[in-house]
Amino acid sequence: MASETEVDGFAPLRIARVVRETADAVSLVLDVPEHCARRFRYQAGQFLTLRVTVGGRDLRRCYSMSSAPVEDELRITVKRDPGGVVSNWINDTVVEGDEVHVGPPEGRFVLRGDLSGATEVVAFAGGSGITPIMSLARAAVDDPDRRVRVFYANRSRESVIFARPLDRLVAEHGERVLVHKHFDEDDGVVTPAAIEAFIEPAGDAHYYVCGPGPFMEAVEESLLAAGVKESRLHLERFTVAVPEPNAMDESSVTEDVVIELDRKKVVASYRRGDTLLQTARSAGLRAPASCETGSCGTCMARIVEGSARMLNNDALDDDEVDEGWVLTCQSLPTSRRVRMTYE
């Protein structure tokens, strides 16, 4: 049963502990009350959506869990980002006892069910991309037959998040855990040769990648070139896609959007450059949404007439896209009329 104080699916959670990880990264341990325990069960690698008010603005941001279910704790880690309104606000002002509004765990960057026996988890993290990787590693080592290998790239030693927890994982699990720390200040940016050398001993593994865009692209290209199957390559992107000029031009042909939600049909005039989610909100509809980065799938709807283009999609699989499903928070209409339905 949902808490009476929940609003739009966001529950008020108290911050039980604040942990300063580095000069520009902080972890928040969240106190989940008993009546919310079921809703906040999570898988390693998933994220939470926080809804906060900063400077009078209602903002939503997604942050990956750095804890794992085996730890019986719910913890997120937030790194300061130049120009990042919410991340900087969290690092500068949040203290133990504060309350934040949090959506339930979401995301598909999780351990795959076919991992068993000697199968390895091989992970590549860049900077704050270590957050979900740390969660995955902590969960993976709970299986005594599983090996975990982590390639962690940072600009300098001072920017390493979870330095001690990573060292503890190695100390506690011996040969089952390998952590390689790469520092740009010593060896330059990560090269394909360094990536290939790290994966060479790996056996029948699944590969997980999270970090800055250029880092992720380099790792993805190197893994595919080395013969890693796409089905065993899992990516988690933190960046939000923005409309390209040509995408804006495509959307300019749209005149209206027909939206079917909760047994209501609304015809909304289209404003150039808006996503389908923004169009629904402008029409006064309480359209479902959570992360608004194309990662969770909460806002998905099906296009039954016309067409739309997704700027980012980390939630829907190819079959769902073929059936007409889109993430409305990331979709720009590309036809004169679009009709979509929430089912």
From TrEMBL:
Q: Report the residue ranges that make up the 2Fe-2S ferredoxin-type domain in this protein.
A: 255-343
Instruction: Check the record and name the Gene3D superfamilies matching this protein.
Output: 3.10.20.30, Nucleotide-binding domain of ferredoxin-NADP reductase (FNR) module (3.40.50.80), Translation factors (2.40.30.10)
Cofactor(s) needed, names only, are:
FAD
Molecular functions (GO terms): 2 iron, 2 sulfur cluster binding; flavin adenine dinucleotide binding; metal ion binding; oxidoreductase activity
Q: Which UniProt keywords apply?
A: 2Fe-2S, FAD, Flavoprotein, Iron, Iron-sulfur, Metal-binding, Oxidoreductase
Residue ranges annotated for the FAD-binding FR-type domain, each copy included: 8-112
Matching InterPro entries, A to Z? Answer: 2Fe-2S_ferredoxin-like_sf, 2Fe-2S_ferredoxin-type, 2Fe2S_fd_BS, Beta-grasp_dom_sf, Cbr1-like_FAD-bd_dom, FAD-bd_FR_type, FNR_nucleotide-bd, MRET
Under which name does UniProt file this protein? Ferredoxin
Source organism per entry reads Mycolicibacterium sediminis
